[in-house]
Amino acid sequence: MRKRAAFALLGAVTAMAGFTAAGAYAGETQTDVQISNVSFDGGKDIVVGLDAKTVTVSATFTHPSGIQDADFVLWRGPDGANPYETYDDRILSNEYYSHADCVASSATTSTCSQTISLEPDWKYGGTALTNAHAGTWKVSVQGVANDDTWTHTASYTTTRLQRSAELTVNASPEPIAKGKTLTVTGKLTRADWDNLDYRGYTNQPVKLQFRKAGTTTYTTVKTGYTSSTGSLTTTVAAAEDGYWRWNFAGTSTTPPAKATGDFVDVQ
User: Fold this and answer.
1) Where are the alpha helices (DSSP H) in 26-160?
2) Rg of the Cα trace of the chain?
3) What span, in angstroms and rounded, lies between the C-alpha atoms of 185 and 169?
4) Helix (H, G, I), strand (E, B) or coil at 17
5) What pTM does this model have?
6) Predicted confidence band at 28 (pLDDT cuts at 50, 70, 90)?
7) Pairing of strands 242-248, 257-258
């Protein structure tokens, strides 16, 4: 059997059940296919809301005989132990043999790229994203040379899959007399992949910030914590015209979020 066919089957098994060889779990290099410049979505965290998000992973592969194929798989789990959890939309859509597209830059080197679609609402009977999927995932990289040798590195790099966040703000009353009490409210929500809506992010520290009219820099005034529904509320003394906003730093499962500043006229 040609290695191309064997490699296609290997990719299918990888995405369904983990990886093929115990030695590869620790990132063992099988042969001398060289892998470099792995980039997963440009090095950014993968932020997914309620709609599908397609990301691209690419790498450079080099071998004296040239490169015939490549494959990338998202996975997580303890090295060398089961169960493994994988995310590979090609398996979900039964496209078992759809691997990376490789473009040769020379007789020995190719750049290979592959897209992966992450979907909270899988419409074709596969496995949808759930809230439990948020967090750090490893990227398995595999390449096959034209002479049928191959390299499989199970943990070449990592990427973070995060639930999209939204943050609002409202400062009132407007306008307000100088020295009077201003109430600033807001709400921090994030994508709930289990229920396909946005729900409050509980007990999270969020900074209240102020920017004086005519300036460009926000200054942190205090830190508040979200309620059981994600709500925020605090009071401050009105001193001068300017913009108020909430600023959330983010967590491993949720990206940072900033509310658009709410202008308050102080008279």
Assistant:
1) 89-92
2) 24
3) 6
4) helix
5) 0.81
6) very low
7) antiparallel
- The model's pLDDT over 150-166, given as tens digits with 9 standing for 90+, comes to 999 888 888 899 999 99
Q: How many other C-beta atoms are found inside a 10 Å radius of the C-beta of residue 176?
A: 18
Q: Report the half-sphere exposure of 37 (CA within 13 A, side-chain side).
A: 10
Other Cβ atoms within 10 Å of 4 Cβ, number: 14
Q: Which residue has the tokens 């007990």?
A: 203
How far is residue 49 CA from its own chain's centroid?
Answer: 10
Q: What's the full length of the chain, in residues? A: 267
Query: Residue with structure tokens 């909430």?
Result: 246
User: pLDDT grade, residue 85 (50/70/90)?
Assistant: low
Cβ atoms of residues 211 and 217 within 8 Å:
yes
Give the Cα separation of 180 and 173 in Å (integer): 10
DSSP state of 61: E
